[in-house]
Each structure stands twice: as structure tokens, then as C-alpha cells.
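Now read these lines:
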Amino acid sequence: MLEDPRITAMGLFVEAFTGVNARLNVQLAEHGLGNVDFEVLVRLARSPGGELRMTDLAAQTGLSTSGVTRVVDRLERDGLATRRACPTDRRGSFTVVTPAGVAKMHQVLPDHLALIEEWFTGRLSPEALEALLTSLRTIRDAVRPGATSGAAAQASATH
């Protein structure tokens, strides 16, 4: 049982993620960002209109509602994001990346992408990377079915 390849697969996945993530966190800290702050900013910046409902942001990041609120409070304090009321639901609100938040992404991303290339994607052939992306999406969709919530609806609303 201890030699089960499922244990090996999970162990290698965790070790690889932890190792790459540690390198990325050092680089993010040099720009005054934590991993979660960066994750939220990237998701906002890549979303149609640079915005996501707070509930969708929570689902995509895996944070609790209060966790997302704390991150957005911090990003607002730093001028990187702002909130706006949802026009169709008084109880809902959107988080919107600000121009300063987009500028911060442009400042951080070149070095961030270089590290991703060096320690992750650059170590895989194009075919292996495509297979990995497909596999990761399959797993993500199974374990976090709400992770893409809001993205499809926003994309179709903008077309």
C-alpha cells in the first residue's frame, strides 16, 4: 500500500507546487504583494471589465467570504482595487481592479513569468504542458466546481 502510485502522484504534486510557490512568493514579496493578493489581482485583471462579484472571487480563490473581504479591504487600502455595488442585486458587490492595480500587475508580471518559465512551464515540452493543463482543469473542475463561476456568465454578457 505504501508503494501505491496514487500516494507518489500526490506527494510529487505537493512537493512541486510547494517548491515553485516558495520561489514565486519571494518575488511577490519584493513587490509588496502576498500570494493571495496577487491571486486576486490576477483574477480581476483577467476578468471581463476587470471585475468579479465578491462571491465569484471567493469561489475562484477558495477563500471564505470573510477572507475575500479582508483581501479586498487590503487591496482597496493600497489603491489596487475598489468595490462597486451590483446594479441588479442590492446585496451583491463587485471588486474592480483599479488602474494602479493593473500597473502593479505590469510591474510584477515580467519577473513572475520568468520564474514560472524557469521552474515550471519551461521544464515541459509543449505537448506535456498541454496535457498537464487539461489534467489540472479536469481535477480543478471536480474538486472546485465553482472555481469558474462568473467567468462564463461575464464572458457571454460582453459578447
